[in-house]
């Protein structure tokens, strides 16, 4: 209940292990206005929010002119890094898109360490807030594209420790126009034009309401003789007494009190920087230098160990790769050997088959040669037989012609003989008829009784005539028999000749077939 603001502030600093306490303060919000807890007054006596519990923000109240020279402790650097990064992301400090990407890469280096493509796969920054929303809206790029740009810078920061990355972040941020400036709306007493008053580590600056980058007028701390306020009016008196006194009006008395409080603190630090360091500061700087040297050596040792480990890992990977390559080569060699063995076996089998085929082909060739010789002989025989057959055919044709002629001749003779036979028969008939007629006239009784006496001379004459007739009849029969016999012999010879002709035609047809087949072989 009796604690002052300094008691609570010191407790927080001890909990954080913070020694550079002069940069920080406890901030709270009352009635929409940010106010700093006073160190010399009791906490409960100040106008704090009526809440349980009451919330305070431990923030940097004053900013160094040169972060690398003034921020000695690592915890101090880290707290400033967190606060400045939040102000850039919340757009309280304006930063160009290019600078935001570079700052984001240092923030990623401070958080994740060195970039490792095997570990930091695409999408590892998806849940990190690294760029202001204004920049994201300004460019039509996807999250993957932004991550690719940040990662390209991030990969360049290899080997930078976390505190170095944070310090590099602050060194870039301290050159931004809005870095470390507290802005307050004011108005001049003459025309009541709205302006902005900015307080930072170097002095007081007056801005137009729409331009927070370039001040219209600046008062460095070394050029200010006095700052005072009366109600809503605040007066800045330059060190040069001939210079014009600057007066302005704020919206309320609390704003003037806050402006004066910030001006006093920044002025004190400004003057302190230009004096000889106190023993405490000298000790802190010496410790900081020793700590930096120790960390540098430690980082170098870690870097060497890391490099050796990476080299060992690369050597191991190379050995593993070489081993895998050798195993792969051995496997391929074994497979090639197996394939060679299979190929050799296959070739041996093919050679055996080829040898057998060669033998078979030789045998076939020998058989073909024998067949060729046989066909040649057959062809020769066939030619000879063909010649003989042709000769036989010619002879047969001659015989046939002769037979036709003989047949015609015999036919004519037969016709003549038939005519002669018919004439003889007709003559015989006529003679018999005449004899019969004579017999009827001279010997009518002999017609009924044909018996005759052998002693009768007439009968003897009659017998002689009968014998003559019978002899003539026998000659005719004999002649007819001979003609018939010759006709039958001729028919028999013709039949045999036709059979012989058929046999010759069959043999000639068979020879022609054999000749065609022989032509196919050749």
From TrEMBL:
Ranges of residues in domain FERM: 1-274
PANTHER family: MERLIN/MOESIN/EZRIN/RADIXIN
Annotated SMART domains: B41, FERM_C
Keywords in alphabetical order: Cell membrane, Coiled coil, Membrane
Coiled-coil region(s): 281-441, 487-514
Subcellular location: Cell membrane
Entry GO CC: plasma membrane
A Pfam family: ERM_C
UniProt source species: Centropus unirufus
Stated name of the protein: MERL protein
Keyword check for Membrane: yes
Family matches, as Gene3D superfamilies: 1.20.5.450, 1.20.80.10, Phosphatidylinositol 3-kinase Catalytic Subunit, Chain A, domain 1, Pleckstrin-homology domain (PH domain)/Phosphotyrosine-binding domain (PTB)
One of the record's GO molecular function terms: actin binding
Coiled coil listed as a keyword: yes
Top-rank lineage group of the source organism: Eukaryota
Annotated membrane topology: Peripheral membrane protein
